[in-house]
Amino acid sequence: MPDITLWFQDLLAGNVIFTPQTLGYYWDGLVTTTQLVFLSLVIGLVLAVPLAIGRSSERRWISLPIYLYTYVFRGTPLLIQLYIIYYGVVFFDGIQETFLWPMLREAFYPALIAFTLNTAAYTTEIFRGAIKATGRGEIEAARAYGMSDALMMRRIILPSAFRRALPAYGNEVIFMLHASAIASVVTLMDLTGAARFVYARFYAPFEAFLFVAAIYLCLTFAILYFFRWLEKRLLAHLRPQS
Amino acid sequence: MKKLLTVSILGVAIAAGTAQARDYDHVRIGVDVPYEPMEYRTADGELTGFDIDLGNALCAEIGVTCEWVEQEWDGIIPGLLARNYDAIMSSMSINDERRQTVLFSDSYITIPGAWFAPEGSELSEVNEETLAGKSIGVQRGTTYDNYATDNYGRIATVNRYSTADDMVLDLQAQRLDIVFLEFVVGQATLLDSEDGDYQVVGGMVSEPAEYFGDGFGIAFRQRDEALAERFNEALATLKEDGTYDEIFERYFGEE
Predict the structure, then answer these.
(1) What residues in chain B have their Cβ under 8 A from chain A's Cβ atoms?
(2) For residues B213 and B236, what is the distance between their CA atoms, to the nearest angstrom?
(3) What's the DSSP call for residue B39?
């Protein structure tokens, strides 16, 4: 362990910008970005599954409101949604006295809410497409077996829809990671926030932003390979047989 | 003949190039708006403020035309180095850290910083004990950001904003317990505002010089020494003939 500390000190010797302090900011930023993106994706995914089923429903009173929701959240920039949720809520008189305030006071939760609602809207549409693309034969076979709608959804449609949605969903995850860069406009010290801090303090745009870009690249690679691995496992039956 | 022509065109181009680098007849000045009363827009959208009026008077004295270029604070020095404008006149404190990057004119005004909190706040003075666990608002990349980060960054949350307006909004929203900014700006945007009551916590802050330096200066690129010299001379003239006092009265007259 002392070896590593020494090696680290050697590495940083004479470096004005990348001191242990600024690297600490980048590390905290990495933690914040990861938490924010991971939580919003997980919650968004949980929301998106029932929404996608509702969106594919033939009953318009179910599908229409969900369509409106996805239309609004896909039709407006994420930055605007973040502004509305962060700065907008304080214009409700007395919001400071409600039980919501301890959460809304921090920048983290408004950002989490905005990101979750946004990714849930996109994921809903991805899943809806996959559900709609279920083969007629599979549905007819399920019917012939006498499956109820719910059982058919659970055993036949959803498992194959998830597999079909996987490549598109992988892209959504990467988009979400990159979109999270706007969190720093509401004072959140995410990766981009750390880079902006270093940029403003040392007037070093190249160093600050290239370094953070490299971190985003590494994260993207990790996500890319995770989804490649998943696809290999789950879509094995679609691969050409040799 | 053709070669001679090329050479002479090249010669003219080089001469023109150096001439432009040496004496400006058009100076673009970077400024971060709004920062009332130093630089802000009136209700009908006109750029005004102490820096703007003094800057225009300086340009008139030197005999150059001036153009104001708006730039957010955290990118204001990189913007100067990237030649997006030729000078910065935007309440910039002269300090050694910045001197390594830019060339400063003589100081044209000295304005202290101050801490502002809502009236009735439990904060009555500023130190490590009172600020522990509080959220402090600063504008990103300012001397106040550097000071707050280095001194209270460990014990309190420092929230950094791109503009002073966003920061004031979050103080009003009670997201921030206290903000740290130029006294005159806090006076204009908080003390004199109709939305809520605010008070100054502790006294004026102008020490240590390591952070707050020697007053505000106009920043130039290091190589533009001649331009800085012309501004210094003009500043001395305006101070002598009373123009400076007149502008000062216009914005800080009541005190």
Answers:
(1) 73-75, 77-78, 81, 101, 140-141, 145-146, 159-162, 166, 169-170, 172-175
(2) 20
(3) B
Name the stretches of chain B with pLDDT < 50: 10, 12-21, 255
Pull the structure tokens for residue B21: 């680098």
Secondary structure (DSSP) of B108-123: -B---EEEEEETT-S-
Give the gap in angstroms from C-alpha A197 to the nearest C-alpha of chain B. Answer: 7
What ipTM does this complex have?
0.76
Angle value at C-alpha A75, between A70 and A81, nearest 5 degrees: 90
Q: Chain A residue closest to B175 (CA)?
A: A105
Q: Are A108 and A36 in contact (CB under 8 A)?
A: yes
Contact B156, B27 (CB under 8 A): no
Q: Which CATH class is domain A32-183?
A: mainly alpha
The pLDDT of A9-34, averaged and rounded, is: 84
Q: Do A90 and B75 touch (CB under 8 A)?
A: no
List Cβ neighbours of A156 (8 Å cut-off, separation of 6 or more): A134, A138, A139, A141, A142, A147
Selecting from B78, B145, B169 the residue whose C-beta is nearest the C-beta of A203 gives B78
The three-class DSSP label of residue B47 is strand
Residue B220 lies in a domain: yes
In a domain, B133, yes or no: yes
**Alpha-carbon gap: B202 to the closest alpha carbon of chain A (Å):** 25
B105 and B219 part of one domain: yes
- Same domain for B76 and B42? yes
**How confident is the model over A29-47, as pLDDT tens digits?**
999 999 999 999 999 999 9
pLDDT digits (tens, 9 = 90+) for B63-96: 999 999 999 888 899 999 999 999 999 999 898 8
**Predicted pLDDT of residue A91:** 82
A185 neighbors B74 (Cβ within 8 angstroms)? no
pLDDT digits (tens, 9 = 90+) for A126-177: 999 999 999 899 999 999 999 999 999 999 999 999 999 999 999 999 999 9
Q: Which residue has the tokens 């004119």?
A: B105
Q: Judging by beta carbons within 10 Å of its beta carbon (0-12, 13-18, 19+), is residue A14 exposed, middle or buried?
A: exposed
